[in-house]
Amino acid sequence: MTKIASTLLILLSLLSCSSDDEKNPVNITFKVNHYWDGTSVTNADFNTIKFINANGNQLSIERLRYLISNIKLKKSNNEVMVIESYKLVDVTDNINLSFSPSVNIPRGTYSNLSFTFGFNNEDNYIEDGYNDLNVAIFNVPAMLGGGYHYMQLDGKFINSDSEEQGYNYHAIKAVDNPGANPTFPQDTYFEVNLGSVTISNNTVLNIEMNIAEWFKNPHIWDLNLLNQMLMPNSSAQIMMYDNGQSVFSLKPDNP
Length: 255
Known about the structure:
Elements: H1 3-23, E1 28-36, E2 39-40, E3 51-52, E4 58-59, E5 63-74, E6 80-90, E7 98-99, E8 108-110, E9 112-117, H2 121-124, H3 131-135, E10 151-158, E11 164-171, E12 190-193, E13 197-199, E14 203-210, H4 234-244, E15 248-251
Parallel strand pairs: 1-14
Antiparallel strand pairs: 1-2, 1-7, 3-4, 5-6, 5-9, 5-10, 8-13, 9-12, 10-11, 14-15
């Protein structure tokens, strides 16, 4: 067999495989798991002061829910495919801890899996909003710019007087001048890039959140100083944005 003929056969084989993959898309499942520095966290761990953040604050978690949107796969040719518009992940009520995209996906290896934490500005401010998020009361008041929360993380901590005190670590778009004409110093949604993935039939992709990272990297979070009224505090929102960059990761292997 000549070298040219051999090359043609290889190309035809690759094209055939690619065509088969396109014709036979598959279902995949996302599982969202939560940890505190390597220790699994579920709602069974809520309402008990059992965690210690990087500042040494003892705390509990009573509610954790957050928004991920524009879940995308990037092909090797840089073509991007949006496979899910958004999901409200609610750890408290075990909602969307596991879900399958509404579209089937061609088999193959993709150069990147990504999503947006929260909503970008275009999606955050659509007319009439999103009914399911409205029902969940995930809205941000108009005086703070409207749209939706990116995350609600609530609980209690032991303050410097050795007393239990509530905290509300709520992430939204950073806002100044609350009222009729709020201003926005910077965007605080962010894109999470999880790296390459290979999709085959019944692939499970495990996204992990390390909750402890919200309190430590790069800003060590002192709950005695920053515990409530954080939504109108643009500096606190920008700190959350910074800390969120290292919160999510992908565990490629099935559990």
